[in-house]
Structures are given as C-alpha cells and as structure tokens.
Amino acid sequence: MVIKPDFETFTGSTKMHQPVVKFPSQEEYVRRLEQGTLIEMENELSQLRKLNARGDTYPAWIIAPIPGCQTSFATSWLLMAKSPFSIENIVFPTVADRFTIDIKESVELPQGVFTLYHLPATRIENPFGNVGELEGSRLQKLAAFKVEVPRCQRTDDGEQTELDIMAHLQVSDALDNTSEWVLDENNRKNISIRWEVTSQTFEAELDALRFFVAPRRSEKKGPSHRSKLAFDMLQHFQPEDPEIINLLAKYRQLAEPHNPVHKIPSVLVQKFSDFNSDHLAAHQGLGQIKNGLYFVNGCPGAGKTEWNMVISALIQSHFTYGTKKRVLRRLVTGLYRDVLAGADFVATTPVAASGSFSHFFHPEIVFVDEAPHARELTTLIPLAYFDPVAWIFTGDVKQTRPFVNDCGSAKNAEMKGLKFNPYTEQLRLSTMARAVAADALDHKLLVNNRAYGNLHRLPSAMFYDGEMISGHEEESMYPPSTAFLKEHLEKLLGRGDLQENRLVVSFASSAEQCHRSSFWNPEQHSWVIEQAKCLLGDSKFQSVSGTPGNIMIQTPYSTAFRQYQAEVKRWPEEWQGRVQVLTVDKAQGNQADVVFLDMVRTTSVGFMDDPQRLNVAITRARQAEIIVMHVRMNYRQAKGCRRTRYATQLWADAQAHRRLVHLQ
C-alpha cells in the first residue's frame, strides 16, 4: 500500500518521483533506494575526480613541527595556506574532508632529490585565530592544516634513511615565536589538494541492502531470522502475523527495577522513578514489540536520549550468580552508571559498525538514536549485521532529516555536469519518518521538560499540531531565575506583562555582508554581543538550579559563527565557559538558559524557511530566547516576492503577542 500516490512530473526528459511511504513490493523498495544511492555516490565521486583533475594550487607556508605529534614513522607539521575567495568558485577542504597534500617543491640533498607528495592531511582550526596581539594579521586569515610527513625517505641508492626534508622549507623552529615570523614570497610554497575518491558510507549502505536481497553463496552467512522479519516489516509497516517480543518478560529487572531482588543501582532506580507518563508508556510498550522493531518519536526536551540510556542500563544491570559473571556484570553496571552520570550518550555510527566490529560484538538490544537523521539504507546496517532481540529507533522527525545533495532540477544537474537523481526526496525520507507517515509509531514523547517561561508554546503550534506540552505546572513555569529573565526581556521590550520569554528584535538599518559564500551582520552581531555580556555580568542571571546561567549564540551561517566565536574567545575564561557558539545545523542536542538566534540576512530568508531547521533553532532555550531577524525574512524572492511559510510565523506571532522590538 502506498499512502501517497507515486505520481510523476516531467522536467525535460527526466522524471521526478514523489517518495513512497509504504512500498507495494520489495522490488520497488530496492529499485528506488539502490538507484538513488548509486546516483548519489556517482555524483559525489565525479565531483571529487573533477576537483583532482583541476589541480588547483594554493600559496602556503610550512611553519614548524607540531609539538608532541611525532611517531616512529611520521612527524606532524603545521601548514598555513591561503584559501580561495568565494567568487573563485573553488572547493576548499573543511575539517570533515578526507584528502592529501602535494607540496610543489623539491629539495636537493647529497642523498638525492626529494619531493613531498601524497602527504596525509587534515584541516584544523587556525591556532592563531584568537590571539589578541595577532588581531587583523595575515596569519589569522590563513587556513591551517596538520600534515603528516614520513620520517624516512628513499635515497637515489634505494636505501631508506631518516631525513628531515621539511626542515629545509620551514618558516620557524617553533610555534610560539610568531613575532619573528615572516610570511612572504621568499618562503612561500605552492600546494595542491588531492581528494580521496572513495565513498565508504555509500558502499556500506549498499552492502547492507544487498546482504538482504542479493543471491548469496551457500557458504556465506545471510541475515538472521529476526533480521529478515524486521526488513520485511519496515518496507510497509503492515505485518500480517507479527512475532511479538516481550522485553519486560525477558529482562525482569527492566519490568520491575524497584524490586530489591534485582539489586539495581540506586541511581538507575531514581532515574526510572523520574520518568513521566510518556516515558512510562514507552517503557510498557517494550512488552509488545512487533518483529523486533520499536519506534519512539520524541519532541525537543522530551528526554529521548535519557530514556535510551536508562532502558539500556537497566537491561545491563541484570544480577546473576557465579563469581565471574557477577564480577563482569558489576563492571558493566559501573560503566553504565558512570556513563549516565557524566555523558549524554555513547554511540557508534552505523558505518563503523558494519565492518569486523559486528563479528565479535553481539548486542542484545540495538538503539538507533537520532534515527530520523539517517538515510534509509544507513538504518539497514544494524539490521543486516546484528541479531539482537530488538532494534529501538528514537528521534524526532520534526527536526533534522537525512542530508542528500540536491541539484534542484535536471537542467541544473546538467549544468553542473552531474546526473539528475529522481529519487532525491525518497533518500531524504528516513525509515522513522516513513513510520510516522504510515501511522506505525509505537509511542510519542510529547512532554517538554526543557522549556520554562512558556517557550514550548510557539514550536508546539508551528510543528507539533499543539500536541507538545510543558512538563512544568503553571505555578512552576516561572521559577526565580526565569522570572528575572522575564523582567530583563520586558526592559528590552519597554513594557511589562510579557506572557512568554521570547522576543523578536528587528533592526531597520542593519545589513548583511557576504564573505566567501557565507554571511554575517555586523550591527546585529554587535548588539547580540553586548546583550550577552550584560547578562554574563549580572549575578542574578542563573540557571533554574541556581548555578551561573549559560548562553547559546546560534546563527545559520559559518561566517557569522566564526565572528561570534572569535569575539567570545577574547572574553574571560569564566565567561567563555558559560557561552557556546553554534551554527543552527550543529545545535540539535544542545541547550542553554538563554539563546540568541541571529538570523543574519536582510535581503531574503535564505535557507531558514526550512521547518526542520527552524524547529531545531527555536527549541534550544530553557528560560529565554531572543530572535534577531529583519523584516525582509518574511519574504522570498524566488518566482516573485512571496511570503515565507515558516519564518514569517515567528514574526507574526511576535507581532500578535506584542513581543516585537524595533530598533534603528
């Protein structure tokens, strides 16, 4: 059954396919996901090959060896390079990219002539970016790389000998004497970037799919019985005669953690006692798992990861007799107790788990946290290679979704020299998002315990059909720390009786500035910085528990992020520890007492009219939120001037509730 008909519209000679929620057959499931992934992989590898073929070179300076980063085989060096301007339309490495560096310089020594090609490298944060005495210097504007250089080189005689080739090219002997450095044409070297043309993620995804559907040799192990049941079920979410898994019966300590016979650590018992009605309902549902698949969707601040950790820790806390088993269980229990006390979660990525890891590790339960962020085939990896009692998927389909490159149209793809992918929207629909659309969720967590000051109201109305409610009663909605911030916002607003600790601030004269295909807004930046400093300097600014309050500065753009980050790093260490600067796309999973959301743009909405991205942005605050946005973010210019769909709701809601502040 297909909930939405698979109709097709034509763009030139290329068909655009609407995503399927319930697949009518396994063949259709395989065809769409395999072909879509192959096209995505082909385009990515094609782009990398084109980059390598271009052979772009960049001016660079080999600074010095990095202290404490030498092994028996290689020495790590700091290399600083000039990155291209945005108008040059050149792709430049980020911290997440995989590449090597060629140094276009040969060194002639008595042992021979040596070159430095294919050096493993990583992009790192500029170590001098926030050094006060270097402010505005050329050094701060360069991109930094950590480059691994072999200690041994092959001589003309074919012998391997230890040689320090980089010593003949370096600017300095150490990294702490920047005042003596001279970066000019005399010591400049040219480098080129060689991108690694591999796609481990796509290959792991396709291997998982083929593990289920491709013919196998008789000696090769195939998917387990439970894996087959789960794979069949997730295609359409309509099992005719499902096998029911009862985790509460299998793990009695999970069913009755308060029973002293199970000897559950008190910290776990207390955390279980703190579960709200939604948590308890999801816990009870573990007794009725169909074909090993269990889906729990949770709103922001609902305690999804905490629920995962408590359930997994309770399962691990089973008390057994026998000395060795008892010691082992005690160690495992101690580990989970420490994890719960000091960390948010412990995880491996599905791709990392697809290798030999699956041969020696046999989990009883697999939790797929943030499942809506994973592509469909990524979630197949733990189904293919593990044989647990159950797979538990948690996350929020209303927030992030899988990333897929999108050319927009066949014409745009052709202009970029890429293959148009008619299955882009199918790849963007995660397994968990399909489960939601198919009404196949097992439970929802809709109680927001994070937000005070009625901050839950707006995102609940915009994204959750009003179903997300606060975990705080009316009398506890404004504890003293939140009441203080309410008064602070009322001073900015110029009136009292604020019903919600959220303001929208608009500057009539602010203007965005473009820098390397990204943006920042100097006037909005300065105002946010002053407001943050004002709060940090006030001893009354506290968390609900009474500790010093903390702040998050969010922005959609990398240039604005870097500007805020550079400013914050100049502040006293005590203040720095209370402030986090994040891009909107990195904000999920984080929270703060006060959140400043600088939307930056003044000519259009940009990409901030995306509901998932906007939902993440306005659900990070615990006690107060200030959104800085220009009136033009209410409109988009594509196909004529039109109202935005989501960003304009922020503005309209603030205007309707008199929470809109106009500044010159």
TrEMBL record:
<dbReference type="InterPro" id="IPR050534">
    <property type="entry name" value="Coronavir_polyprotein_1ab"/>
</dbReference>
<feature type="domain" description="DNA2/NAM7 helicase-like C-terminal">
    <location>
        <begin position="430"/>
        <end position="630"/>
    </location>
</feature>
<dbReference type="Pfam" id="PF13087">
    <property type="entry name" value="AAA_12"/>
</dbReference>
<dbReference type="GO" id="GO:0005524">
    <property type="term" value="F:ATP binding"/>
</dbReference>
<dbReference type="GO" id="GO:0016787">
    <property type="term" value="F:hydrolase activity"/>
</dbReference>
<keyword id="KW-0347">Helicase</keyword>
<dbReference type="InterPro" id="IPR027417">
    <property type="entry name" value="P-loop_NTPase"/>
</dbReference>
<dbReference type="InterPro" id="IPR041679">
    <property type="entry name" value="DNA2/NAM7-like_C"/>
</dbReference>
<dbReference type="GO" id="GO:0043139">
    <property type="term" value="F:5'-3' DNA helicase activity"/>
</dbReference>
<keyword id="KW-0067">ATP-binding</keyword>
<keyword id="KW-0378">Hydrolase</keyword>
<protein>
    <recommendedName>
        <fullName>DNA2/NAM7 helicase-like C-terminal domain-containing protein</fullName>
    </recommendedName>
</protein>
<keyword id="KW-0547">Nucleotide-binding</keyword>
